[in-house]
Specification:
Distance between the termini: 17 Å
Strand content: 15-25%
CATH superfamily of the largest domain: Periplasmic binding protein-like II
Shape: globular
Number of domains: 2
Low-confidence stretches: 1-35
Radius of gyration: 19 Å
CATH architecture of the largest domain: 3-Layer(aba) Sandwich
Strand order of the largest sheet: 2-1-3-11-4
Structural class: alpha/beta
Largest sheet: 5 strands, mixed
CATH class of the largest domain: Alpha Beta
CATH topology of the largest domain: D-Maltodextrin-Binding Protein, domain 2
Number of strands: 12
Number of helices: 9
Length: about 300
């Protein structure tokens, strides 16, 4: 595997982590499945970018079920999956299925989708225009530079009539697939976390949901997005990820259930994200099938 060594990961986590509960000790490796998050120590869940108030509610609601949870915040997407693989996290909840598929293929990893959470429609914002039709011919639109979000952003721009992609586009489309003479705008890549601050420098940008509210943007000001009920968006369902050996862990599955059904938590989540999330419940077999197909598609594109 092309993963960082455990020591480096631990140092990275120590530098980035902001815990939602006090660490009271780590579960020993011999602890049986289901004991995590009890007297043996907290369940450590990695999130990006972190700091959202609904995670505090999640921790409280899990505690009512006898499960101690520690939320570990990361500033960047590439870190939580290696941390999970190495055992420095128990779960993570920051990515959609396509992102996990790309990680598994690139890292020769076997992380699994433990449970579905929400679909975040991917939105286009502009600091200069109030309508997608106002973006000028030849204007510049920024998209995230990571492979999975780049492809989805291009599909959004195509659905809004700003570009045209070869063969209609796919979950592996890149800038090289843009048909220039049939597209209204030029597309540039930027790191997802800096697109909001870069909006004054471009005509528009596709902003990942994680960065909308922290940047002071409002979903009501979006110029357009993809639709959660579109079958093509299903692979972009966000998930709890786990190590393969933990796919039947009762404690971890209970945490998924809290996320999906706990009314207090759902109210806190919806209050924070507003129109930015659509709740989705997919079974583990369904998630496994979607993940397998996404891995196959990504491997074939390389």
């Amino acid at each position: 595997m092309s993963l960082k060594k455990r020591g480096a990961l631990a140092a990275s986590i120590a530098a980035l982590a902001i815990t939602a509960t006090a660490l009271v000790g780590c579960a020993p490796e011999s602890a049986p499945a289901g004991d995590e998050g009890t007297s043996e120590g907290p369940v450590r869940i990695g999130v990006v970018p972190g700091g959202q108030p609904y995670w505090e509610v999640f921790v409280d609601e899990a505690a009512k079920e006898g499960i101690e949870v520690e939320i570990v915040d990361f500033a960047e997407y590439p870190v939580p999956n290696p941390a999970l693989s190495e055992g420095d996290l128990d779960l993570n909840q920051f990515q959609h299925i396509v992102y996990l598929a790309n990680h598994n293929v690139d890292a020769q990893d076997d992380l699994v989708a433990l449970g579905s959470t929400v679909v975040y429609p991917l939105n286009v914002f502009s600091a200069k225009y109030d309508d997608i039709k106002d973006i000028p011919e030849g204007g510049t639109v920024a998209v995230p530079n990571d492979e999975s979000n780049r492809a989805r952003a291009l599909l959004v721009l195509q659905s809004l009539g700003l570009i045209e992609l070869k063969d209609g586009g796919s979950s592996t489309s890149g800038l090289e697939d843009i048909i220039a003479d049939k597209s209204r705008v030029k597309v540039t890549e930027l790191a997802a976390d800096i697109i909001p601050a870069s909006l004054p420098d471009v005509d528009a940008g596709v902003v990942n949901n994680d960065y909308v509210e922290p940047a002071g943007l409002e979903f009501a000001d979006s110029l357009g997005s993809d639709k959660a009920d579109d079958p093509a968006v299903e692979p972009y369902t966000n998930i709890f990820a786990a190590r393969a050996e933990d796919k039947d862990n009762e404690t971890y599955l209970k945490l998924v259930e809290i996320y999906q059904t706990n009314e207090t938590f759902i109210a806190a989540l919806d209050d924070y994200v507003g129109e930015g999330a659509v709740h989705v419940k997919l079974t583990q077999p369904e998630l496994a099938d979607i993940l397998k197909q996404a891995e196959t598609d990504y491997a074939a594109s390389k």
